[in-house]
Design a protein that fits this description.
Chain lengths: 149, 1015
């Protein structure tokens, strides 16, 4: 019974996801999902940046501390970065960031980084579905608004 | 040819459809004065009537509108609407174009298109833009977003209905005095150096095929009528309803090849685009109304273009399109229900009938209207057997010296081909007039920028309905109300199409009236529309970077179509986020980069050689790099064409021209080793047999070609008689009539390891190659036997006639189903087994030769070249252009262009015009001595910089230096950004631990409020 209540509560939970998408690949991929009319959950709020390598860890932490349930970073596929290797820089940064998430008591799975090209509208939509479901399972961000920054 | 001193740096472009518009924009950007002559009251052509475009389902008006607005705003383009060309006199370089400007009766400069005149006008006429599905007044605009956006009076009517009756009510209603009923026609004389004819063609009128019931039965529509039915701004506001009872039809049938491939109406050519627009119309209809059951009656599905096969696949699998291979005998009406009964013969030869609620005739294009084309007659152009103008395949856009042609005036074709030809024609005109480039142009003057520093943010928000693209799913009035409630938002307005010309005026007016200092447009993606709106800000005296777009279409309404409430809430949130950022936007002044006015062309096939020649002929020094020891690429493997072009002569002459041109440097047996820099200023290392050669250039054109695929099936490589089409072609080119015996048999199998899961694209050229080789065999010995086993025969456009020729010489064409592929067995002789649906049995054909059509494979090095140039390839390994319809030779990366078969497989004439198009687009950059630099570059706050040099090591462009300075007697080290080298990636910002490094347009103080607003 208790389990059931928990389940139904969880299924009502709509996670808030902040997406940082690079202008050249992932943002264009998200646009293609639109032009192809591929439907996905409305949980992600997209912020366009020029390159995934420009996503400062501060933005990600800020989003989580302010109450985002998940943060998505979308970049070009390895080798395809419009700025040579910004996506590698982003990946390295996320690896380091995961330690900080541990320290904050946050699940590492709340921060996703994926490579999505301008021609992968389908992939973008699928990833959004997947991430929304995954975060929904994790439940709300436990540390939302507990920190004064 | 006229003397240099007599040449005129202006060009007349006849026709204001997308083709003419593209030619005009290219030429104007290259520094020529352009007269864009359009016979109707507005530019836009047929593309303005389309709802969506395949294969991306882009909203047609949304991608066209920015180009039209650009045209009307360009300082070098003069729009002459309601104007018909009468005569062209003179010589290449110095023509006089005589034209008749018919009265509009409305002053374009005074008309504000307020619509008061239309309200009071008592006369109603069928609205021809809406294909007569709705009415308009005698005073009207061609369409709501028409450019010029001014009214026009129809005094003549249409024969059945009379036009204006001079009641003068409109004159009374017009508050600005724009109407003058006494305006007289004017004769114009335009002095130009070249002419481009892009006058378009006519949709076929199916009335002359009475068996189809068009105009007899209300529920039989043409495909162009159906485009208007689908359109949100059309007569039914995008609702799928049928004319007889305004009810939603469930079963809709499309009938292919109406007025195409049809001897009875003397249109024995294929119109090329109907197969694809049919699939598109069916998919969109299904999207508008999920209950629609679409059926397509077809002969072949000609999905020969880039990504077309995938589109058809999705249409079948995801949207449930049902395809019936058939021939229609007649369409009848059930007089009670007004339903339609289609009688047809299916592919087993059985006669069947089926009832539908609505029938759409997929009509083709033709050039003649009532037996003639007035323009062709007046200008005296040579025509082919179909009445279209004739050009030679080795010089595809040249009609006569100095007179060029593009678009469907030349041959029925889709938008990308038309746009490529438009740019190619511009390149040819620019080469002819290179000495007088820039002599007749003006620079666009913007008002002085207002200094907004110290002003409190006053944000204006413009929310776009985009017809029903946004408004159909997002509650726009609710979003407007929400935006009005946000702090610092001073003005909010909703628009039907925010990108239209009249809205640009509204934006400019609102900025001035409400003293706005930051602007947000909530509409589609900034990737396509940001520059358009930024121009409006400049016209209003605002810095263009005080602007942001909120993407509520691609990333909201279109992906949450089934959840309108959520879509509305998300749209609100996205706008709130944008407002949070916009509040902190600051003006940006762009740096200027000098342009090295030279080009690098990679790949020396016909496309590369043509691009190099075109650029050099326009006066730009060009380096041509070819990896093989000789030029020519795939052309070295082509021996003859069905049109009779002498390939060896074309190859020899082109190679000679390239090698002798004083502005072209050829590097054979060479490759691009490395490339550094950015648009306008590249430094390349070319690896040659004699070592590395350094070359500085401003643009890159990629033309690395493609090669024939070698199959692993059908005994290829195991039996000497199994060969590819190219191998057969070589053999036939060396054969004499006596080499082929009577009864000697050739079986050709099409789509071998092509259009399947592994290589899911059509290679476009192989069907014609089979037809060409089949005809050649029959020429050598008419008593030889040739069988072509095919899936869909892709002899599009005028190529259809060679398919017919082949059939007439006795070549047997047998269709096979992809589920039942032909089998080949080797006994003492080769035996081909194929299922024949008409006979409903397996045929066994013993054969001497097995010829495999395998198509082209992309160059293996595309991926590497792509990485070096920072340009993408698609899933199939071909290069991915910036936009499939309207930017077919550009990459998203500024300064890099593509042409030839590395873009997608194509014919020689297509490679030639695409190569010229790439040269034209490249020249729009090379023509300018200076470009404006990337705006979103990094800046250092020197007070905060600790001099740790982390950013220097992380910058991929070596754009950051460390500087030592003495400030107030103190020695300090800080970072300094080179504005020309910085590409604005922001990597340094992410790495800076002191917050000293910031990216313009993406500063912490702009992004952090946005992040905060998100949650």
């Amino acid at each position: 019974m208790v389990e059931g209540t928990k389940e139904s509560k969880k299924s009502e939970f709509e996670p808030k996801i902040v997406g940082f998408l690079c202008n050249w690949c992932s943002y264009a991929g998200a646009d293609l999902a639109g032009t192809s009319r591929i439907q996905y959950p409305p949980n992600v709020r997209i912020i366009r940046v020029m390159c995934s390598g420009a996503v400062d860890s501060v933005y990600i932490l800020r989003a989580l501390l302010e109450g985002a349930d998940g943060v998505f970073i979308g970049g070009c596929h390895p080798g395809d970065c419009h700025y040579l290797d910004g996506n590698y820089k982003a990946r390295r940064r996320i690896v380091l960031l995961r330690d900080i998430l541990d320290a904050l008591g946050l699940e590492q799975e709340r921060v996703w980084i994926r490579w999505i090209s301008a021609s992968e509208g389908q992939q973008f939509a699928e990833t959004m579905k997947e991430m929304t479901e995954a975060i929904r399972k994790l439940g709300p961000n436990p540390i939302a608004k507990q920190w004064d920054i | 040819m006229v003397k240099k001193s007599e040449k005129i740096g202006a060009v007349a472009v006849i026709g204001g459809g997308i083709t003419g518009v593209q030619s005009a924009l290219d030429l104007a950007d290259m520094g020529f004065k352009v007269y864009l002559v359009e016979k109707s009251p507005a530019i836009g052509g047929v593309m303005a009537q389309l709802d969506k475009t395949f294969p991306t389902n882009d909203c047609s008006m949304c991608i066209l509108s920015p180009k039209l607005v650009d045209c009307s705003r360009h300082a070098n383009i003069e729009l002459l609407t309601n104007t018909e060309v009468q005569k062209i006199e003179g010589k290449p370089g110095n023509f006089v174009v005589k034209a008749l400007k018919k009265p509009r009766y409305v002053d374009i400069d005074k008309c504000t298109s307020c619509g008061s005149c239309e309200e009071v006008c008592p006369i109603k006429l069928p609205n021809l833009f809406e294909q007569g599905l709705s009415d308009r007044k005698a005073i009207y605009r061609l369409y709501p977003q028409a450019i010029p956006n001014a009214y026009v009076i129809d005094k003549e009517g249409d024969g059945k209905h009379r036009g204006c009756v001079d009641c003068m009510k409109c004159v009374e209603a017009c508050t600005v005095g724009a109407i003058n009923h006494d305006e007289k026609p004017k004769n114009l004389k335009l002095n130009v150096g070249a002419v481009i004819v892009a006058a378009g063609s006519q949709p076929f009128n199916p009335v002359i095929k009475p068996e189809l019931g068009y105009k007899k039965y209300k529920n039989v529509l043409t495909s162009i009528e159906f485009e208007r039915v689908l359109s949100a701004s059309g007569p039914f506001e995008g609702k799928i309803i049928r004319p007889s009872d305004k009810k939603s039809p469930k079963k809709i049938a499309w009938v292919h090849c109406v007025g195409s491939r049809d001897k009875s109406v003397e249109h024995e050519y294929c119109s090329s685009m109907c197969c694809m627009y049919t699939a598109k119309e069916a998919v969109i209809a299904k999207e508008h109304d999920a209950d629609v059951e679409p059926t397509v009656f077809y002969i072949d599905i000609r999905s020969f273009g880039k990504d077309f096969d995938k589109y058809i696949d999705r249409a079948k699998k995801e949207h449930g399109l049902r395809y019936v291979r058939s021939r229609i005998s007649e369409i009848l009406e059930d007089t009670k229900t007004k339903n339609l009964i289609i009688r047809y013969e299916d592919d087993s030869g059985e006669l069947k009938e089926e009832t539908f609620n609505l029938v759409v005739l997929s009509i083709g294009l033709c050039i003649v209207e009532e037996q003639r084309n007035e323009l062709i007659e007046r200008l005296g152009f040579e025509t082919n057997e179909f009445g279209f103008v004739y050009t030679s395949p080795d010089d595809p856009v040249v009609l006569r010296p100095g007179i060029f042609v593009a678009g469907s005036f030349l041959e029925p074709q889709a938008i990308p081909e038309s746009v490529m030809q438009a740019s190619a024609a511009a390149a040819n005109a620019a080469a002819l007039l290179k000495d007088v480039r820039g002599t007749l142009v003006k620079e666009k003057q913007y008002p002085v920028e207002r200094d907004v520093s110290g002003e409190k943010p006053q944000i204006g928000v413009f929310v776009c309905h985009c017809g029903i693209n946004i408004g159909g799913y997002v509650d726009v009035p609710a979003v407007v109300k929400f935006a009005e409630s946000l702090d610092d938002v001073a003005y909010v307005e909703a628009n039907l199409y925010t990108c239209s010309e009249d809205t640009q005026k509204k934006i400019v007016d609102a900025i001035k009236k409400h003293n706005l200092n930051r602007i947000i447009v909530a509409a589609c993606t900034p990737r396509t529309h940001e520059p358009l709106f930024q121009k409006s800000l400049r016209e209003a005296g605002l810095n263009p970077y005080l602007f942001e777009m909120t993407n509520i279409r691609e990333q909201c309404s279109w992906v949450h179509m089934d959840k309108p409430k959520d879509a509305t809430e998300k749209a609100k949130k996205l706008i709130a986020m944008t407002v949070a950022k916009t509040r902190f936007l600051q003006p940006i002044q762009e740096a200027e980069i000098p342009v090295t006015q030279k080009a690098l062309v990679i790949g020396g096939g016909i496309a590369g050689m043509t691009s190099a020649l075109s650029l050099a002929d326009q006066g730009y020094e060009t380096a041509l790099v070819e990896k093989e020891s000789m030029l020519g690429g795939y052309l070295n493997k082509v021996y003859y064409t069905v049109e009779g072009i002498d390939i060896s002569q074309l190859l020899r002459e082109t190679t000679e021209k390239v090698q002798k041109h004083h502005l072209i440097k050829v590097y054979t047996s060479s490759s691009l080793e490395s490339l550094n820099g950015y648009v306008g200023s590249y430094e390349s290392d070319i690896k040659t047999s004699k070592g590395i050669v350094k070359f500085s250039h401003g643009v890159v054109v990629v033309t690395v070609g493609a090669d024939e695929y070698k199959p692993n099936s059908y005994l290829y490589g195991k039996n000497s008689q199994a060969m590819t089409q190219s191998e057969l072609e070589k053999k036939l080119s060396e054969s004499q009539p006596e080499d082929i015996q009577d009864g000697e048999t050739f079986v050709m199998i099409q789509c071998v390891e092509s259009r399947d899961e592994k290589r899911p694209y059509c290679s476009r050229i192989c069907c014609m190659q089979a037809v060409k080789n089949a005809i050649k065999i029959k020429e050598l010995n008419p008593r030889a036997e040739v069988f072509v086993l095919y899936r869909d025969l892709m002899t599009y456009g005028f190529k259809e006639k060679f398919y017919k020729d082949a059939r007439e010489t006795g070549v047997m064409f047998l269709q096979y189903d992809v589920e039942k592929k032909p089998e080949v067995i080797l006994n003492d002789r080769l035996l081909v087994k194929t299922y024949e649906p008409m006979l409903d049995k397996k045929l066994e054909i013993p054969t001497d030769h097995l010829v495999l059509s395998t198509g082209l494979d992309p160059n293996k090095s595309n991926q590497d070249i792509g990485q070096m140039l920072k340009v993408p390839v698609n899933d199939d390994g071909f290069f991915l252009e910036a936009h499939v319809k309207l930017r077919p030779v550009d990459f998203s990366t500024r300064g890099v262009f593509v042409a030839g078969s590395c873009h997608t497989p194509k014919f020689i004439d297509e490679s030639i015009y695409q190569a010229q198009a790439a040269a034209a687009r490249a020249a729009t950059i090379l023509a300018q001595p200076k470009l404006t630099a990337e705006p979103n570059i990094a800046v250092v706050n020197e007070d905060l910089c600790s001099g740790c040099k982390m950013c220097i090591s992380i910058c991929p462009y070596n754009a950051i230096d460390s500087v030592e300075e003495t400030i107030n007697g103190k020695q300090v080290i800080h970072a300094k950004v080179n504005e020309g080298l910085c590409q604005g990636c922001g990597a340094c910002v992410g790495s800076c631990s002191s917050g000293a490094m910031q990216q313009r347009g993406f500063k912490d103080k702009q992004l952090i409020p946005m992040v905060d607003e998100t949650v």
